[in-house]
Amino acid sequence: MLERLWKWVIALTDWAVGTDWTSEEEHRHARLVAGVLFVMSIPGLLYSVHFIVIGVVWMAVAVALTISSATASVLWLRYSKKPVTAGVLGVTAFCCLLTTSAYSTGGFYGPNFAWLYVIPVFAALLANMRTGAVFTGIVLLVTVGFWLAERHGLPIVNFIPEEERSVRSLTDRGGAILAIGVAIAIIASRERLGSKKLGDAYDSLKEEMQQRELLHDRMIHTERLASMGKLSAAVAHEINNPMTYVIGNLQALQEDEAYDEEEQAELVRDALDGAMRVSALVKDMQVYSRTPDKRQHDDVDVEAALDTAAKMVGNRVRYCAQFRMECEPGLRARGSEAQLVQVIVNLLTNAIDALEGAVEDNELTIEATACSEGVWIEVRDTGQGIPNDVQKKLFEPFFTTKDIGQGTGMGLAISRSLMEGMNGSIRFESTPGVGTSFYLVLPAAGDEQVKADEVTVSTATTSAEVLKILVVDDDAAVLRSIRRMLGSHDVQTEDDAKRALQRCGEERYDIILCDIMMPSMSGDKFYSELKATQPTLESHVVFMTGGVLTPNTEEFLASVDRPVLRKPLNLDELRSIVTRS
Ligand code: ADP
Fold first, then answer.
1. What's the gap in Å between 350 CA and the centre of ligand 1?
2. Could you tell me if 462 and 509 lie in one domain?
3. Which atom of ligand 1 has the smallest separation from the CA of 407?
4. Cβ neighbours of residue 389 under 8 Å, at least 6 residues apart?
5. 42 and 95 co-located in one domain
6. How far does the centroid of ligand 1 lie from the alpha carbon of residue 359, in Å?
7. Is there a single domain that holds both residue 25 and residue 156?
8. Is residue 325 a contact partner of residue 313, using CB atoms and an 8 Å limit?
9. What is the 391 CA–ligand 1 centroid distance (Å)?
């Protein structure tokens, strides 16, 4: 029954205001105004009949005015789609009605007078607070007018016959209660609309922020890859040099057996040294290209980060300036190593671009010390400096003075955003023709963080014991090499992760060394299945990776907190992880 009544109300208000509103909220507001006008028109109709019957023309005119302004507001709603204006018209109608009613039923002391005070509330609800304030003023004026009229003995005509007054007063009071009920309904519905609107706004803002963050991260990564592209020639040089004697020495050993023991040892030592250099460079590049996890700031070994950055640009620096790096020993900052390296590489690249002339005349210096805010890093060059008009725009995205293909203009904008992301700062001083200094400040490292590689492998053994180790990797050469490296232990190898899982069910291993990227089953899948089938072995897993990690894999590794060995494996590192109990 109630439901049907509600449907009729909706249909009636829809008929009044139309349904082609651009927003659902506006539509609801319009319906509300129309609904209230309908409710108000019922006593209006009764009054008109009453006044026409007793033949008071001017009262009938006042009521006609009420009804016409109510109609005008409905039409306004329907054709101009402005609920606020319609609300104001509606309240005006209400005002006419109540003033007439109050005047005709006892004036200032009459039962209808109290109705007047409802008007501003309706005005505020149907339109807005300002309209409410205007109507408060009107009602106050009317009140003062009535009060003055009565004080000065102006005859207040009471058209309600004596015998009807109690009944009229009852209906008026009922009407007032109804009006207050409607007002409360409006408040509740407004509140709902308001909170929904707020909720929607919050959701869309959140979505926009997420989009921006994503875009920002992509931009940082793109800029990093772009600068890696610029560095690729230098990197190739750094790799090809040592590879010349790695390959040369190994071929010499393979083809010529006439070397004595000492010469053989030297050939092997040099080849190993070259391979280590390449491996270190690749590791540095991985640090640089890795997408850092913004939420997780680590303790950063500042010297190592500066070293990595210097190596990345080393080959370019060598041909344009005398390079000097001074770092206070043991300096640690709080932040992300990859991000710090990215910032320093960018500063060094810019400095190199600004250096002209002979190597002996140019200086490029990095200094790092502790300071009151944490860690202070300065990158100083004796290049051409930055002109005053350029200085203002330096951190603006896409601002560059370099030729197309030489600069993206994003380096410093991104550097600043990275520094701020680590709760640090970046600023510069430059004198045209003399040189430029960039200053970085980072918070000092705290000691609350447990480092990931301090996670231990749960084996109830001591380092002297022979461990049963399963190595899972799809590359047979890697398996052979690890078996050789861990020769003193019982090492079993498996090139198929599914078969490895089966073996784990049959035998008990102290350590399971597992590659992350495998064709038949990825390392993370292997780990999850092992956890499900052999929960006790989960803490025996050590991961190995060639370095190319997807964001999902990075997230997985961070979540499981297992040790990770990065290839190429280092014998000492491998042994220390294996024997750590
Ligand atoms: P990009 O290097 O791609 O141009 P950046 O944001 O890293 O973008 O640098 C913006 C501009 O700032 C550069 O084009 C250059 O004009 C100026 N600049 C930055 N560092 C230096 C410096 N050490 N010496 C002179 N000019 C610099």
1. 5
2. yes
3. 3
4. none
5. yes
6. 20
7. yes
8. no
9. 10
Which among 222, 342, 412 is the best mutation to test ligand 1's pocket, defined by most ligand atoms within 8 Å of the CB?
412
The pTM (predicted TM-score) of the whole model is: 0.48
The model's pLDDT over 262-303, given as tens digits with 9 standing for 90+, comes to 888 888 888 888 888 888 777 766 666 665 555 567 889 999
pLDDT bracket for residue 434 (50, 70, 90): very high
Phi, psi of 387 (to 5 degrees): -55, 150
Q: Which residues pair with 300 in a beta bridge?
A: 333
> End of a domain among 388, 411, 442?
442
Contact 437 CB / ligand 1 (< 6 Å): no
Q: Are 538 and 526 in contact (CB under 8 A)?
A: no
Whether 355 is in the pocket of ligand 1, judged by its Cβ within 6 Å, is: no
151 with 23, same domain?
yes
pLDDT at residue 437 in the model:
96
Ligand 1 centroid vs 346 CA: distance in angstroms?
Answer: 9
CATH number, domain of 412, equals 3.30.565.10
* Cβ contact 86:13 at 8 Å: no
One-letter identity of residue 279: S
What average pLDDT does this structure show over 456-464? 46
Express each pLDDT in 245-269 by its tens digit.
Answer: 888 888 888 887 778 888 888 888 8
434, 430, 407, 438: which is closest to 343 by C-alpha? 438
Measured between its terminal Cα atoms, the distance across the chain in Å is 76
Domain assignment of residue 168, yes or no = no
- The tens digit of pLDDT for each residue in 9-35 reads 777 777 777 777 767 777 777 777 777
Q: How many CA atoms lie within 13 A of 315 on its CB side?
A: 14
